[in-house]
Amino acid sequence: MSDIASRVKAIIVDKLGVDENEVVTEASFTNDLGADSLDTVELIMEFEKEFDIQIPRRPSRKHCNSRSSCIIH
Amino acid sequence: MELKRVVVTGLGALTPIGNTKDEYWDALIKGKSGAAPITYFDTEKFKTKFACELKNFVATDFIDRKEARKMDRFTQYAMVASDEAIADANLDLDAINKLRVGVIRGAGIGGLETFQNEVLNFAEGDGTPRFNPFFIPKMIADIAPGNISIKNGFMGPNYTTVSACASSANAMIDALNYIRLGQCDVIVTGGSEAAVTIAGMGGFNAMHALSTRNESPKQPQDLLMPPGDGFVLGEGAGAIILEEYEHAKARGAKIYAEVVGGGMSSDAYHMTAPHPDGIGVIAVMRNCLENAGLKPEDVDHINTHGTSTPLGDVAELKAISEVFGSHAKNININSTKSMTGHLLGAAGAIESIASILAMEHGIVPPTINHTTFDDSIDPSLNLTLNTPQKREIKVAMSNTFGFGGHNACVLFKKLD
């Protein structure tokens, strides 16, 4: 697993309190990992902090997963 | 319209001297002090370096880690105490009508630590607002009842009362009245607070409200100390299940006591100082007695507000002498804050629990670490000093007063 992927995964495990095995690349934050809208915002902020990047808001949440991380609209 | 009778059917306590109702009671009658040096943050530059923190409490022992992370400590405490009270009441959540179960609790401040940490985080940054999306829902004082209802499915009235240190007594009085009026069968009431934080200690220190006897944190509380000392900040939660009497009887619930009245008044005098003649305090005890349909002579025990601030304690004891006249000397008066510290918005809840348990056991917990009498206090008053006293209690009163001049008083009676 790439360094980026493992760092993303670590944040998801920490914030959503899910098992590491559940965080597969296609898992939806909301549908599979139990995130609500506030969890999703928090995740985005954590990714921004971790990678020093800006992620556009108002993502289409149905596409949110650890691969896209809500970046793809 | 005939008012319904209201009884106490469940208790839960998470306090600096005991993490359950039973541990709390055991510590109360042993005269245990909850004061110790602060462990939560570096107090080197703080005037007061001690408080009554909870001991050996780990929130994730009780609450799922993911959920606990979304709660300020005042909500975590509320969840743990209310779970204990609901279990103690033996409430069958599948059998009761949850539309008629409310949650009304007090918090003097609410999520102070959450607010403090989010603002600190912003101040350390470059001005870009990066507030956590859970900041507001974690901080707001009403979120504790909100979370209790979400967990248990209680769909009745749900809110937090805020009247500083009288908050949880106000919550109990609201709960009492809704049940009396037939609008609810059961209400989870009480209060919680978690203000032992940088902002809490710094803020209360700035007012000269806190004791600064850092050299003897084990002897922090002294009812009627000379000017210069003050209260010891505590934290934790109390939960009380109030239930309509027939509802409780029908399900065979254990009944601790009846809640027979609530009194409320305001000093209309000063933001933080009590009225020197105690006029608001006299009024609140009188209107509480009237609300309960009791006479002063009926009262056996008073758990005072008694915070160890000289102005407040003198005014309260003078007010007791005024309201109860020659009967005042027959009353077992105590301040359990001498052991727990001052739990602010949870004070009324844990002190009511102390009084209800005193009634159940026939023992009045002591006022510890008391050394100094003020000349203006009637020496015949029984302040239950240093050791617990056996006493059959039929009627107990619990007083709480808050910054802003809010006074609230609750009366409990042994069920006939």
From TrEMBL, chain B:
InterPro entries: 3-oxoacyl-ACP_synth-2, Beta-ketoacyl_synthase, Ketoacyl_synth_AS, Ketoacyl_synth_C, Ketoacyl_synth_N, PKS_Beta-ketoAc_synthase_dom, Thiolase-like. Keywords: Acyltransferase, Fatty acid biosynthesis, Fatty acid metabolism, Lipid biosynthesis, Lipid metabolism, Transferase. The active site is at 165 (for beta-ketoacyl synthase activity). GO terms for cellular component: cytosol. It catalyses: (9Z)-hexadecenoyl-[ACP] + malonyl-[ACP] + H(+) = 3-oxo-(11Z)-octadecenoyl-[ACP] + holo-[ACP] + CO2; a fatty acyl-[ACP] + malonyl-[ACP] + H(+) = a 3-oxoacyl-[ACP] + holo-[ACP] + CO2. It comes from the Bacteria. Its EC number is 2.3.1.179. Pathway: Lipid metabolism; fatty acid biosynthesis. It holds the Pfam family Ketoacyl-synt_C. One of its GO terms (biological process) is fatty acid elongation. SUPFAM superfamilies: Thiolase-like (SSF53901). Residues 3-414 form the Ketosynthase family 3 (KS3) domain. One of its GO terms (molecular function) is 3-oxoacyl-[acyl-carrier-protein] synthase activity. Involved in the type II fatty acid elongation cycle. Catalyzes the elongation of a wide range of acyl-ACP by the addition of two carbons from malonyl-ACP to an acyl acceptor. Can efficiently catalyze the conversion of palmitoleoyl-ACP (cis-hexadec-9-enoyl-ACP) to cis-vaccenoyl-ACP (cis-octadec-11-enoyl-ACP), an essential step in the thermal regulation of fatty acid composition. Belongs to the thiolase-like superfamily. Beta-ketoacyl-ACP synthases family. This is 3-oxoacyl-[acyl-carrier-protein] synthase 2. It comes from Lacinutrix neustonica.
